[in-house]
Amino acid sequence: MFESSVGQRYEDSPRVIYGAMVSTYPDLEYIWVSRNDQPLQANPNTKIFRRLSFDYYRYLVTSRYWINNQNFPTYLTKRRGTAYLQTWHGQPIRKCSMIRKLYQGRKSGYLKWVTHAKKSG
């Protein structure tokens, strides 16, 4: 399941990863979250759903992979067996887990909030 910019755009690292995966594994089923029906059907196995729709949640709980450049809703916890690749568009957050001082000025609980979905239940 791919999502970029909270479903607003077909761009950034999720788009590049998606393109590489479709080229390498064209027969897999792909799910894109979009507010405006992008991407155009790059292959017949790509399904497009609106963010926060019934199908959005259905595929979140059944997808083997989550690929996103922002956050999925913070009230979600990924199921065991799902891999979550977070590419962090425009944020130095991937370095922040090692450098705590970069959290200065953030609300308490920020690190827990941004890392919640990666945990298995």
From TrEMBL:
Gene: tagB_5
Annotated PANTHER family: TEICHOIC ACID GLYCEROL-PHOSPHATE PRIMASE, TEICHOIC ACID GLYCEROL-PHOSPHATE TRANSFERASE
Name of the protein described by the UniProt record: CDP-glycerol glycerophosphotransferase
InterPro entries xref list: Glycerophosphate_synth (IPR007554), TagF_N (IPR043149), Teichoic_Acid_Biosynth (IPR051612)
Pfam families, per database record: Glyphos_transf
Tree of life domain: Bacteria
